[in-house]
Write a structure and sequence with these properties.
Elements lengths: L8 E5 L4 H11 L3 E6 L22 H5 L5 E4 L5 H13 L2 E4 L5 H4 L4 H7 L4 E6 L14 H8 L18 H22 L5 E6 H8 L1 H10 L20 E4 L4 E4 L7 H8 L4 H4 L3 H6 L1 H12 L4 H8 L6 E3 L3 H6 L1 H6 L2 E6 L3 E6 L3 E3 L17 H7 L4 H9 L4
Parallel strand pairs: 1-2, 1-4, 2-3, 4-5, 5-6
Antiparallel strand pairs: 6-12, 7-8, 8-9, 10-11
Helix pairs in contact: 1-7, 6-8, 7-8
Length: 397
């Protein structure tokens, strides 16, 4: 039996989790998914784990989110390879990518160029923070989105903010991207023109917390956690959240080649000895955490961001909801919206995290009161006023 997306062709330029997981879902639904990978090494998730955790040389993480795809390796620096890509674009329905903004543009595969090859192409981008705004050029990663969105203040016991035990923002954003692509495909099948679809981790993280954020925004009550550090179970040091002089900072994965510079910035003379390779960074992560945490305590969060970000370290200020509401990228993305409810009055809510260039999503209806649209819907399917009145008298709605 064919899936609902049978006949739909997906062309992917992806790595890590956000876009690969979305493309797996599209493949699960029947789409023909081709992912373009680097010759020789492939995408990051293929060997992201320490050797002892590989399954016949394959990463369990890669295996978990890449079924129902075909892999194609191309050196995109080659003009012949780029010509192959152009031919693939011409026959595809959807391009999916989570490369940083501008990467595909430089290769000649921008949305504008794709449109010339395929006037109905759907160009779906999974980004970190959005295609514009103060954070657009920063690396987007699950832990950083958790931090900026306030999520880490919901997790774990009282004290240090805690990351989620799974890469939930990657996964949730992937599901949003999948639904957005499906919606755009419907529009295409109705004769719609080419359009861009954009999802980003930060907006997804905010959307995931719609209930909790709305509660805070409308009551002013910050969530309180119970009483004692845990990060993701499979991540090696220095992944985690650290205390600074005036708050907290999150620091994501650091390649062993960058440990020496990290030690120089943090003024930890023996950090390279403590973190010689990934195996040791995994084995001794709790002891390493304590050493790094003491170093971070000596300066405030903004100092450390200014020191670390220019060297490409994946780090972010850890916001609570009060900080999140004032965060410049959250404000730029307009993810906090106000609706005017007939009973509740003006209510702040998390906005729509999916963006369509030609068929924009909007908040068209308030959350309905119970049975508010009974009559309206019944009329739409052909019931007369008399029939509706009879049904009401019979207490059927």
């Amino acid at each position: 039996m064919k899936g609902p997306l049978d006949g739909i062709k997906i062309l992917g330029f992806s790595h890590f989790a956000q876009a690969p997981f979305a493309m797996q879902l599209l493949g699960d639904y029947g789409a023909d998914v081709i992912n373009i990978e680097r010759p020789g090494t492939g995408e990051f998730e293929r060997d992201c784990m320490v050797d002892k955790d590989l399954l016949g040389g394959e990463s369990p993480y890669f295996l978990s989110m890449n079924r129902n795809k075909r892999s194609m390796t191309l050196n995109l620096k080659s003009e012949k390879s780029r010509e192959i890509v152009r031919k693939l674009i011409a026959r595809s329905d959807v391009i999916v990518t989570n490369f940083r903004p501008g990467v595909l543009d430089k290769l000649g595969f921008s949305f504008e160029e794709a449109k010339k090859l395929n006037p109905q192409i759907i160009y779906a981008q999974a980004l970190g923070y959005g295609s514009s705004g103060p954070y657009k050029d920063l690396p987007g990663q699950d832990l950083l989105a958790q931090s900026i969105s306030g999520y880490t203040h919901l997790v774990g016991p009282e004290g240090v903010p805690v990351p989620g035990g799974t890469f939930l923002i990657d996964m949730y954003s992937a599901i949003l991207l999948t639904s957005a692509v499906c919606a755009a495909v419907v529009n295409k099948l109705k004769g719609g023109a080419a359009q861009q679809v954009e999802v980003n981790l930060l907006d997804s993280a905010l959307h995931l917390q719609s209930q909790e954020i709305s509660y805070y925004l409308n009551t002013g009550n910050l969530p309180k956690r119970n009483r004692n550090y845990s990060g993701h179970v499979h991540m090696e040091a220095p992944y985690g959240i650290y205390e600074t002089k005036n708050g907290y900072i999150s620091l994501s994965t650091t390649h062993p080649d960058k440990v020496a510079k990290l030690g120089e910035i943090l003024k930890i003379d023996n950090l390279s000895e403590l973190m010689p390779n990934k195996q040791v960074m995994q084995r001794d992560k709790e002891a390493i955490y304590e050493v790094i945490n003491e170093a971070f305590k000596k300066e405030n969060t903004q100092h450390w961001l200014a020191e670390l970000q220019p060297f490409g370290y994946w780090c972010a200020k850890v916001n609570d909801y009060a900080d999140m509401e004032k965060d410049p990228q959250v404000i730029h993305n307009k993810m906090i919206r106000t609706i005017d409810h007939p009973i509740a009055g003006k209510v702040k809510v998390v906005g729509i995290p999916v963006h369509f260039s030609e068929t924009p999503a909007e908040i068209r209806l308030n959350p309905p009161m119970l049975g508010e649209h009974n009559v309206e819907v019944l009329k739409e399917i052909g019931y007369s006023d008399e029939e509706i009145a009879k049904l009401k008298n019979e207490n059927l709605f």
